[in-house]
Design goal:
alpha+beta; 11 strands; five-stranded mixed sheet; 160 residues; globular; four-stranded antiparallel sheet
């Protein structure tokens, strides 16, 4: 066996990373393995897909809220309900993007159990990257596969 073929067989498979940044004290790069090390939740979901009808899957991963809280969003403790002005932008490798409000995922408000899935139907997503899963959504349009970036933004101007 040639050295290059042996190297190719033993080289690690490229691991997808998610850049978590924005208005957080602890920006980071997260892999599926990093996300798998956090407390896991599972959700059996059914959602409508415009191209293939109703889809049924089981996803496992940490709650988006828990991952973002660990990044320490820059909430102003002097401003009552400051966290409600924050937005969360999620981008996928295929260019798919979606936006959520902090209130949707906050346990004191919407309490949506949004997952950063690390497995779909018991198959790990290490190579593809995590998937955003919104079990409460009837339509699958906000499910983002192969997440590459999550940006927390609380810096836009307040409305007057």
């Amino acid at each position: 066996m040639s050295d290059s073929l042996a190297h190719a067989r033993t080289a690690a498979v490229a691991t997808a990373e998610v850049v978590l940044d924005g208005d957080v004290a602890r920006p980071s790069r997260l892999t599926v393995a990093d996300l798998r090390s956090r407390p896991q939740r599972s959700a059996a979901v059914a959602f409508e897909c415009a191209t293939s009808g109703v889809r049924h899957h089981r996803f496992t991963g940490p709650l988006l809220h828990d991952v973002l809280v660990a990044a320490e969003p820059a909430f102003d403790p002097a401003r009552r309900k400051d966290r409600l002005r924050f937005l969360i932008a999620v981008s996928g490798a295929d260019g798919h993007r979606t936006l959520l409000s902090w209130a949707e995922i906050d346990p004191d408000f919407g309490r949506a159990p949004v997952l950063l899935a690390v497995a779909m139907d018991d198959s790990p997503l290490d190579g593809a990257g995590p998937q955003l899963v919104l079990p409460q959504d009837r339509c699958g349009a906000r499910y983002v596969s192969g997440i590459t970036a999550i940006r927390v933004n609380g810096g836009y101007s307040a409305w007057t």
